[in-house]
Amino acid sequence: MTTSPLGPRIGAGLAAAAVSLGVTQLAASVFSPAADARTAVGTSVINLTPGPVKEWAIQTFGTADKLFLTVMVVVVVLALCATAAAWERSRVPVGSLVIAAAGAAGCLAVLAQPGARAVDVIPTLLGTVCGIAVLRLLTRDRLPEQAADTERRRSLLTLGLLAAGALSGVAGQILGRQRRSVAGDRQAFALPKAAAPAAPVPPDVQPAAEGLPSFITNNADFYRIDTALSVPQLSRTDWRLRIHGMVDREITYTFEDLAEFEPIEKAVTLACVSNPVGGELISNAMWTGYRVRDLLARAGVQPEADMVLSTSVDGFNVGTPVEALTDDREAMLAIGMNGVPLPVEHGYPARLVVPGLYGFVSATKWVVDLELTRFDRAQAYWTKLGWSAQAPIKTQSRIDVPRNGTRLAAGGVTVGGVAWAQHRGIKAVEVRIDDGPWQPATLGAAYSKDTWRLWTYEWQATPGSHTIIARATDNTGAVQIEQAAPPAPDGATGWPTVSVQVK
């Protein structure tokens, strides 16, 4: 008997992994979303990752963090199977045992998904069996007289199985998206006309300067940070909002029940707590929805309750002060964004929008559950990882133009950006060049205390290297904190700074 050299065995491991992943993905397309083992494993990795590592990933990869994790899950599986295949033998099937162990881990991850059923592990089991079969086939020992011709055939078979596995995975991804997509449900939905429409946006909120963001952020450009590795697909028919816990009566609303409440429209700027000083994890939109306080009123919130633990359909949860959901800021159960139904990646069919609080303590997407409780009795997802339980947005500013490292011509230069202090509003922005005095910037019109404010400053630039610094003051008189601090545990602080070179 002969033993295949190392190279072909590694190839066999890669082919086995590709087939296992591909078959699992293809079979999962006809089961519930929980059956997607790749997403289940990725979600488990997210849930088990320490808070500082998650923050590092957000800071490093930004909105591409989920793509990076998805790719890494596939890469790790491929590397694991390729390495284990090198030790695969007829009598000691190390590679097969590793694939079986990976399959068992995949099944556990699937069963840990919200709403998972026992049958949802079938695709993972099927993929595992196929992967082991491929590995056994491609690493089977041959007689010496069969070796030359067999190795050529085995190489071609390995390449064919690699391709088949990859194609199966792609096909499964496409079929799964088509089968579960709520795009048609969203397109068929017409937003209700707001009984309390937002005030028109006056033209002077937007300074006439190139490079500044639009006052209203396009849906496609709105930042997205969440823990959903695969965007939940929840139709209006299947959506339910359960309100329970410390209430006089438990209530479950259907989407049709929302028509009993007054729809409102409100511009609100949302910000992620992971946004570094000068960062771009902040956007402004015009939201349509219903007052959360009206929904809670029917349930009867008990006086002792001080927190609402809101939960997404994928199991993610957020803790929000009851006061922030019931006071005059008009926290919303939003169903529309910039005049259209919520984009699926931003929470369709319903999400929370709460002015004045960072998203990790307020902005639950795909929300399906509101539990009235207390901060001393329950902890939300990020709080368990060491982040603050309550996190009002800090007074902040950003320099959008010129960009850091820009080379400029001497003379008139427009410096500009945005400033925000949601639910307090911005009163002033100041700019300092190098070690010079603080100079007042020109503010665009204030739309509301719950939206950001654009600003500009005209600078006569002189040749040399220069540092531009900005700071904001909110309507309470609080000045943006100078001391630099990272986002954890309750938001970054510091003054935004850019360096430029003037010819």
Please characterize this protein's 3D structure.
- It is a single chain.
- The protein has 10 helices and 19 strands.
- The protein is an alpha+beta fold and 503 residues long.
- The protein has 3 domains: 6-180, no CATH class; 203-385, Oxidoreductase, molybdopterin-binding domain (Sulfite Oxidase, Chain A, domain 2, Alpha-Beta Complex), CATH 3.90.420.10; 396-502, Immunoglobulin-like, CATH 2.60.40.
- The strands form 4 sheets. The protein has a 5-stranded mixed β-sheet with strand order 2-1-10-5-6.
- Strand 1 (240-245) and strand 2 (251-254) form a beta hairpin.
- The termini are far apart.
- The mean pLDDT is 91.
> What fraction of the residues are assigned to beta strands by DSSP?
15-25%
- Kindly provide the radius of gyration, computed on alpha-carbon positions and rounded to a whole number of angstroms: 27 Å
CATH homologous superfamily identity of the largest domain: Oxidoreductase, molybdopterin-binding domain
Which strands sit side by side, in order, in the main sheet? 2-1-10-5-6
Q: Fraction of residues in helices?
A: 25-40%
Give the averaged pLDDT, no decimals. 91
Structural shape: globular
Largest sheet: 5 strands, mixed
CATH architectural category of the largest domain: Alpha-Beta Complex
Q: Show unreliable segments.
A: none
* Tally of strands: 19
Count of all domains:
3
Structural class: alpha+beta
| CATH-defined topology of the largest domain | Sulfite Oxidase, Chain A, domain 2
The CA-CA distance between the termini, in Å, is 76 Å
User: How many H/I helical runs?
Assistant: 10
CATH class annotation of the largest domain: Alpha Beta
**What string, H for helix and E for strand, traces the elements in order?**
HHHHHHHHEEEEHEEHEEEEEEEEEEEEE
